[in-house]
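Reply to dn_fold:

You asked what the input looked like. This is it:
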Amino acid sequence: MGDAASRPTAFLPEDWQAATLVGRIETPAGPTPVVGRDGRLFDVSGAAPTVSDLLNSDAATAPGRDLGPIDAFDFAAQPLLAPVDLQCVKAAGVTFAVSAVERVIEERARGDAARAEAIRADLRDRVGADIRSVTPGSPEAAKLKAALIADGLWSQYLEVAIGPDAEIFTKAPVLSAVGHGAQVGIRSDSAWNNPEPEVVLVCDRAGRAVGATLGNDVNLRDFEGRSALLLGKAKDNNASCALGPFIRLFDEGFTLDDVRRARVDLVIEGRDNYRLEGVSSMDQISRDPLELVRQALSEHQYPDGFALFLGTLFAPTQDRDVAGQGFTHKVGDVVRVSSPRLGTLENEVTTSKAAAPWSFGVGDLMRNLAGRGLLLPQAAQ
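and this is what came back:
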């Protein structure tokens, strides 16, 4: 982590003194859950050796060793890890239907604004509703699907954008996500890729959404563009999932409604002096976050809890090198995903081959915690 990224004031939420924050730091002894509350940071590993344990208990009041003011903690010496550990990391795709439908219309209109509006008006007349406000899975959505099929505009992406079933997939294996300040990886054989700045809900073993964090769902547009069946290669590679800096727990001052209206900003700065800015507004999402949680849980259980990427409105179109070629990452890009109530997640881009290998798995974590005496029955600790 660079000097700037390791300064707490550079990545904490704007109202961090009032927030309850859950995270993990890398200590000499091993990965350690921490809680930030009342402006101070606490090592709570004695009460909960994993973040999964912490979120399945009373994280807000877990006892712990006081590490001092959170804004004075040395995160360069003990860096932040991804704030989840045993949780499964899931993701929802194409959750901003208006963006997906608009892209289809724009492709058909070929840049002619008047033609695009005419297509919208025709669809609106046939559907009987404003296509920009159609609810996925509704009768209006079924009419819109029929109209798009009739016009030869249907795609599998629109099926999950406005159909009854959301796209829910596994983004990363347990313990493979990287945290704030780490490098993120793109496949070395990808020539067209991008970040996806998202809000991520974190749920306990009962499926209750207990907090939120930021995420970068690194995506390979060339792989997924060739075939949706390559989604696994497009989404799940070494260091391709970043989460952080902290999970902010829901309380009276921060609720799901704050997630529903969150603004997520993105800034990319390259070594070539390239700069790109983007934004994703959660109030444009087509499916409510709790509906996405419900679909993730419909026929599955997560005894250690799960994290769920909620999708993004952002799609980079700004040219980088060649006019008409759009955006793709270069090694050395610095990506900042930020939202006022959640802080800033910053990562530098490298290749998945060059990124630090994922070498600390579940077995390693259990052996580490056992060696530290943290897996004893709680009553004996």
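The mean pLDDT is 91.
Hope that clears it up.
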